[in-house]
Automatic annotation (TrEMBL):
<protein>
    <recommendedName>
        <fullName>SnoaL-like domain-containing protein</fullName>
    </recommendedName>
</protein>
Amino acid sequence: MTSTMSKEDIVTSFQTFLDYQNTANWDDIQKCIQPSVHFDNSLVQRDAFIAQLCLGVEGWQKQSELANYVVDVGSQAIAAEVINSENERGRQGTAGETLEYREIAFASFADGRLSN
């Protein structure tokens, strides 16, 4: 039996996913993701999906912030504008260049966990 989340629950789940990603909390992020996920036109296992999230440009640190969103409770999905900031870590811990960009993320949930 599948559970239906409210609009607020969907937004909270997506925000929690972003928070775990921002803090590189790869152990707890597993709780937010189904065992297999539709990603990039393929069905991938959770660990492979998380490995994809870990990829980044060496020497850069990424932070993602939920800006605007539209939720479809019937399909348990969210379309979200996410603002990403990537900071280049300079030598001896000094801050380097900062790159900011926006992206649109589409995510759907099954039984309260990210599935697509």
